[in-house]
Amino acid sequence: MPYTPGFDGAGVVDEIGEGVTHLQVGDRVFVTALLAKRNTGTYAQKVVCDANAVRRLPESISYEQGASLGIPALTAYRALFHRAKIKPGETVLIHGASGGVGLLAVQMAKGLGATVIGTASSEEGRSLVKASGALHVLDHITEASMDKIMSLTHERGPDVIIEFLANVNLETDLKIIAPYGRIVIVGNRGSIEINPRAAMMKEADILGLALWNALPDEYEESLHALEAFLQSGILHPEIGDILALEDAKKAHEQITNNKARGKIILSID
After folding, report:
1. Of 95, 104, 153, 236, which has the maximum CB count within 10 A?
2. Which residues have CB under 8 Å from 197's CB, separation 6+?
3. Which residue blocks in 113-177 are alpha helix, DSSP H?
4. Edge-to-edge strands of the sheet including 160-163?
5. What are the distances in angstroms from CA 253 to CA 44, 247, 248, 264?
6. Please, what is the average pLDDT of the chain?
7. Separation CA 238–CA 221 (nearest Å)
8. Residue 98 in 3-state DSSP?
């Protein structure tokens, strides 16, 4: 203590330090500061930020949308581009695509020219995934429904799988992944027993991801890419509830109790 929580935010530049050339006072910006060294927390009216953690926010993107980017957008970018190294024309399965990271990953992969298949457990979630650009949207893939994915990919399987619940889905992922495919584990909640031969036979890669492991040049690249994606219209963040800053406790309770819908934003009038 004293400690102010919060890594992500958006607002207006009030002052700049010496040597800062990419921003001016009055610019609309977003900040994503997980890997920055000198940032103060974003649960506040004013924030001090490392210059490299701040990027311009287009007029077409609201401050609330800008504040929702941060960690989810960096995670989606790192999963697709640093770990999976996706290419235009590949097929990407995003398993659990209706979450904050998943929806942004759908938009980025679609924007690159990949064919995106997304899964979600509710009709509302599947509608969001479809609206974000997925060509096909399905209920979560299980061993009993693998044939759906295989049929959509002409029996080849997806080239890339972005996995948010590996302890449930990894074995199925290995059965449906294309030869030489890549499975990126973004989320996991326990252990699972798999047969490594499934990876051997296809020479498939299982890749872990932890955002804080990003190297400085990867972090810088990701921020440049997010700014460009916003400017071009590739990214259009989906947000959930907007609460006042003084209701931060309520926001945390909603997340803890699994009652949050989308990315919760704390707003300051």
Report:
1. 104
2. none
3. 123-131, 146-152, 166-176
4. 136-138, 115-119, 91-95, 160-163, 182-185, 205-208
5. 19, 10, 9, 11
6. 93
7. 23
8. coil
